[in-house]
Specification:
The complex is a heterodimer. Chain A is built from five helices and no strands. Chain A is mostly helical. The relative contact order of chain A is 0.05. The N and C termini of chain B lie far apart (about 70 Å). Classes of the chains: A mainly alpha, B mainly alpha. Chains A and B meet through α1, α3 and α4 of A and α3, α4, α7, α8 and α10 of B.
């Protein structure tokens, strides 16, 4: 049942949504007629509808609030660009220590690799030079076993070593 | 960087009112897709299309003209940063307006203020002027008179519960539909209708009390209640 407030009227609960639609002009003809019929029979709903219609007139007097200026979209885009720039520099700042460590590691690794390669290349040239010298002079490496007469057993190996040492 | 289709930009600028909702939504979808691919111009077009409504929504909730532009900019910035995650299941406008509502509440929470607080009541002169305007049933002429009427109405609206005030402002002053309000405020459509209808009764109670206290409505109220 509807109740009356101190000043105004309160509509029947089941008609409130319907009356709002009526006010909004959102009802089909049959529904609109049924709302009108109910308002003829019910003083509270009639009063509430009049009251609601007055509220529409009252509130529309002020009109909408002030809209954006002509430069609004451009200002928004400038703010977006600034925010993007800030974000990317923040991202860079976050990774900076790791990036710097990575570069240091890469530089050290390159140096070590370079040193190894150059050492290896120098050793190779030295070994080749020794081999060439040995071929020219007809001497062979003292530590290399004689391919023509390989030692038959352990004793012969020891004998060969002993002889070599005596020869020196 | 790819450009927004020229026909789309031109139609949005030249005939904004003649575009039907469905076509607008389709164009919005395409602009959103382009924005998601990184086309800045497409997003700028979306800003142009929705800036008026976002201003209205933010203005309707905050009722502080000095803060509206800043919050509206923040709304579009958030939309830009989140647009890649927007799956287009809802309309872009609904998604954007929800961001706007959340942004307004965040803003008010940070500022620790009610959307609108007026300590002083209406002066007798203001009551009398408003009564004249309501009786004439036509909007006040000139920006000064409009601003004053708005201020008087704002004072009356401040006497209502927050949700009532918000619904009335967005519906009657800023022109949002019941359907839009339901989507934006995450309410059932029927709930919006019922709350709106009750809020109308409450604002008229406030109006009558103001008028009654200045003796303007004494006669008219007794006449009305006889019916």
């Amino acid at each position: 049942m509807a109740t009356e407030t101190k000043f105004g009227y309160t509509a029947c609960a089941k008609y409130e949504a319907l009356l709002e639609d009526y006010l909004d002009g959102a009802l089909e003809l049959t529904d609109a007629k049924s709302a009108e019929q109910h308002c003829r029979d019910c003083a509270n709903c009639r009063g509430a509808l009049e009251q609601a219609a007055s509220s529409v007139r009252l509130l529309r007097l002020a009109g909408p609030s002030v809209g954006p200026g002509p430069a609004f979209a451009r200002t928004v885009m400038a703010r977006i660009r600034a925010a993007e720039q800030e974000r990317s520099s923040e991202r860079a700042g976050f990774w900076q220590p790791l990036v710097s460590l990575g570069w240091r590691f890469a530089a050290t690794a390159t140096l070590v690799l370079g040193a190894l390669v150059s050492y290896d290349a120098g050793w190779g040239r030295h070994a080749q030079r020794n081999l060439a010298t040995a071929r020219l002079t007809g001497t062979s490496d003292i530590f290399a076993p004689d391919p023509a007469n390989p030692p038959a057993d352990r004793d012969e190996v020891l004998m060969m070593v002993a002889e070599t040492n005596h020869g020196k | 960087m790819a450009d927004v289709p020229k026909s789309m930009a031109a139609s949005a600028q030249a005939l904004p009112l003649s575009l039907d909702r469905k076509r607008k939504k389709e164009e919005d979808r395409e602009l959103v897709r382009l924005s998601q691919d990184g086309t800045e111009a497409a997003f700028e077009e979306l800003v142009r299309r929705h800036q008026q409504r976002v201003f209205a929504l933010v203005g309707g909730i905050l009722r502080r003209p000095e803060d509206v532009e800043d919050v509206a900019q923040q709304v579009f910035l958030k939309a830009y940063l989140g647009i890649k995650r927007f799956d287009q299941r809802a309309a872009f406008s609904t998604w954007l307006y929800k961001i706007a509502v959340n942004e307004c509440w965040d803003y008010l929470r940070k500022k620790k203020v009610r959307p609108l607080v007026y300590e002083a009541d209406l002066s007798e002169e203001q009551v009398s002027r408003l009564d004249g305007i309501v009786s004439a049933d036509r909007p006040p002429e000139g920006p000064g008179a409009r601003a004053e009427t708005r201020e008087v109405l704002d004072r009356m609206l401040a006497a209502l519960p927050e949700q009532d005030r918000q619904l009335l402002v967005l519906k009657e002053m800023e022109g949002f539909s019941v359907q839009e309000l339901a989507e934006i405020l995450d309410l059932n459509v029927n709930t919006v209708k019922v709350r709106l209808f009750r809020a109308r009764g409450r604002i008229m109670d406030v109006y009558r009390r103001r008028m009654d206290s200045s003796g303007k409505l004494a006669g008219s109220r007794s006449t009305q209640r006889k019916g």
